[in-house]
Design a protein that fits this description.
This protein is of the alpha/beta class. The chain contains 11 helices and 17 strands. The protein has a 5-stranded parallel β-sheet. The chain has a 5-stranded antiparallel β-sheet with strand order 10-12-13-17-15. Strands 11-14-16 form a 3-stranded antiparallel β-sheet, with no helix packed on it. Helix 2 runs antiparallel to helix 3.
Length: 381
């Protein structure tokens, strides 16, 4: 029915039939209300979307396969879960049997539910004390030196990537950074999910150092497509906080999806991001990021005022600049029109629609602390 709801709009009767069929599986755990809410939402919210199913690298005691394989999957040599019937999560390190089990069910989701990818949450090191299935070992003092499970975690993503390729699918293999990036775990990932850290904790320039963003969030080191969580918490609809979110993401070329539960962010994306996305669709568009080791057609003298340029040579350019300074600054911005393919040009403030004064290919303006400014450059008439 997820597949059907993905292709067409389901009737109330069809959704009610799914609820009646599935309730009995959730009644023993007191989760019927939650099940019903998820069914009604998911069977209506996935119409014409690309569905990527969410998984944790874990199991649960009520799982029949877990009762057979728990000694291979669990983080300890001896486990208290034998005969239990709970649905709480039990963390695992993915042994070969677990990976086989998981891929079997991934395959079912592809075949039956129109699932297009695999997303893994909480993909980080959890110490494993299982001396039989990981590299954990007993030390001379009798304590256990745990294993990170790094190679098993890497193998899991490799198997998913290979499995999807063998099926002729685009391998959407997505992992959650969880505020770090352990490169072996990303060797076969194609998409990453970052910025769960520090929801609504003030200006985004203060949350994530630029070195972290360039090393981790852009995905360039791992070779993954970067996706960011939108902001959450009490400041999610604060216009200024969300403008700092837009400023940092736009300047770092992180034009990810917008969360529908953050209306203020959606409004700002429409104003600032959409022009960049529209220009990106044009054949011949060139992006210049401030960290690129090449000539920059537009740049500020102050290194604490980084920017990004999208250029359609000779026709249009967009320039976004933000401030990482601790105070308001005069931005002195130099323009190289020949690199942009302009003989003559004008600079227009996207916020006001006004043309800025340009002298000797230089623009000057006051940029407030952590603010964002976006300018459009077009040929002069």
């Amino acid at each position: 029915m997820l597949a059907e709801g993905n292709k067409r709009k389901l009737s109330d009767q069809e959704i009610e039939e799914v609820i009646q069929r599935g309730k009995k599986y959730f009644e023993p755990y007191g989760r019927v209300d939650s099940f019903i809410a998820h069914v009604r939402y998911n069977l209506r919210a996935r119409y014409k979307t690309t569905m990527v199913f969410y998984y944790n690298r874990s199991s649960y005691a009520a799982c029949e396969e877990f009762q057979t394989f728990m000694d291979e999957w669990c983080l300890n040599d001896y486990n208290p879960h034998r005969g239990q019937d709970g649905i709480y999560e039990i963390p695992i390190v993915p042994s070969e049997s677990y990976i086989d089990y998981a891929l079997y069910w991934f395959g079912k989701s592809f075949e039956i539910a129109n699932n297009k990818g695999v997303y893994h949450d909480n993909y980080f090191f959890i110490p494993s004390f299982n001396t039989m299935m990981t590299n954990a070992y007993e030390k001379e003092d009798g304590t256990i030196m745990p294993s990170t499970g790094v190679w098993q975690l890497r193998e899991f993503q490799k198997r998913i990537f290979t499995f999807m390729n063998e099926r002729g699918m685009e391998p959407i293999v997505m992992v959650h950074n969880t505020s770090t990036q352990i490169l072996p775990l990303y060797s076969f990932a194609t998409v990453q999910y970052d910025w769960e850290w520090r929801y609504s904790q003030g200006d985004v320039q203060n949350r994530f150092p630029r070195k972290y963003i360039l090393l981790v969030s852009t995905g360039e080191l791992a070779g993954t497509w970067p996706v960011l969580l939108s902001d959450h918490g009490p400041q999610a609809n604060d216009p200024w906080i969300q403008k700092t979110y837009i400023a940092v993401t736009l300047v770092h070329d992180l034009l990810g999806p917008v969360a529908t539960w953050v209306p203020e962010l959606g409004k700002l994306w429409q104003k600032y991001r959409e022009p960049f996305l529209k220009l990106a669709e044009e054949k011949g568009m060139i992006a210049y990021r401030y960290w690129d080791e090449r000539e920059q057609p537009i740049r500020a003298e102050n290194p604490d005022l980084p920017g990004i340029v999208y250029s359609l040579p000779g026709k249009e350019a967009l320039y976004a600049i933000t401030s990482y300074s601790s105070k308001d600054e005069e931005a002195i911005v130099h323009i190289k029109p020949d690199v942009l393919g302009f003989r003559s040009y004008k600079v227009i403030d996207v916020d006001t629609g006004e043309e800025l004064k340009v002298e000797n290919n230089t623009v000057r303006f006051i940029l407030k602390k952590h603010d964002l400014k976006v300018f459009r450059l077009v040929p002069a008439e």
